[in-house]
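Take a careful look at the protein record below. Let me know whether the structure tokens fit the sequence:
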Amino acid sequence: MRPNTLEEYVGQTHLVGEGGVLRKLMDSGKLGSFILWGPPGVGKTTLARIVANSLDREFHTLSAVSSGVKDVREVIELAKAERESVFSTGKAAPILFIDEIHRFNKAQQDALLGAVEDGTVVLIGATTENPSFEVINPLLSRCQVFVLKSLGVEELSGLLDRAIHHDVLLKTLNIEVKEREALFAMSGGDARKLLNILEIAIDSNRSQDPIVIDNASVTACLNENVARYDKGGDMHYDIISAFIKSVRGSDPNAAVYYLARMLDAGEDPLFIARRLCISASEDIGLANPNAMLLAEACFRTVSVIGMPEARIPLSETTIYLASSPKSNSAYMAIDSALACARRTQACAVPLHLRNAPTKLMAELGYKDGYLYAHDYPGHFVDLEFMPDELSGTVFYEPAENKQEKGLRAYLSACWPKYYGSAEEDAGNQKG
């Protein structure tokens, strides 16, 4: 049932519909390298083949799962030979399609750079993962990224009807589709999964005439419910997003529910543990520093014991983090400081803070004026630590929670010019 032309292709109208950006490129014949990013079963491989066929290009394909640097170089050499052949004079560059390009390591991706840069091949990559994280910057900068979407109910319905009425075998059978909701729910916007479930449902009821497809028969024919969760698809990101937002929103019941959804669907428990570590520092932060310690201990424990026992420390940590007071002050401070650092890389470090390992540096005044804090009462001395241009800049603003109110009191005592006097701070807390 794989489409061979754009007219048969279902979905992604924002790319290949009338006025779509990819349609315009195909119509112009000026095709550059690009990456198709989207969930499974939405037509990435099919679209790459249609592009090659419509432009009459040679089409080479590699799977990142089974190919190495040697395979990449062999295909590139073959492409060079084809272009240099007297029979191919003036012919456009062949297309190299790489499925699951996110699985290529840096060396494999580096091997592609030269051929993509000089036009030996037009690269089309397919990935279910965010290319910003999985594709090296030099290669990503040479490719456009087109985002594909999960198929909607209307598109899935069209695919279902076409399969029943045009498949060589199915069109000979007496099939009556009474209900479609279970088919669509279990496919999760994945055309390939939809057709697989349809095939199972028909095979399970082949003795009937007509073969009735309804919600009950579809559910009954599957050995177990197909979880609407795909570790490579949109649902993966939706569930982990709901999980983290529930922790951030201090709802332990919702958080542990989404944890259960992920574990039941076979999510990697270490992926969940890593996200808990991030949440412990980003969302709980200085409001409860113990959260980071527990999250880190959870990660180590999960990596050692694995499933199914790993569900218990994951649940413990999830509930603890969701039930903890929240603060994003550390997160806000580093982002603010990074933004400032990018603008002020030329600012000189004050001389009294510089290291003076040589006599010349000491003669130039390096380290002069530095005061050792532990030599002073309270282990504090009022000294300027910022570059002159940034004097008085405040990045960290303590949040309004018990733990950080204590930090603010200490900072107010040390730096009243930045955090107000201790008396002012006490008055603000009282108010």
User: Anything to note?
Assistant: The beta strands are 34-37, 59-63, 95-99, 122-127, 144-147, 175-177, 211-213.
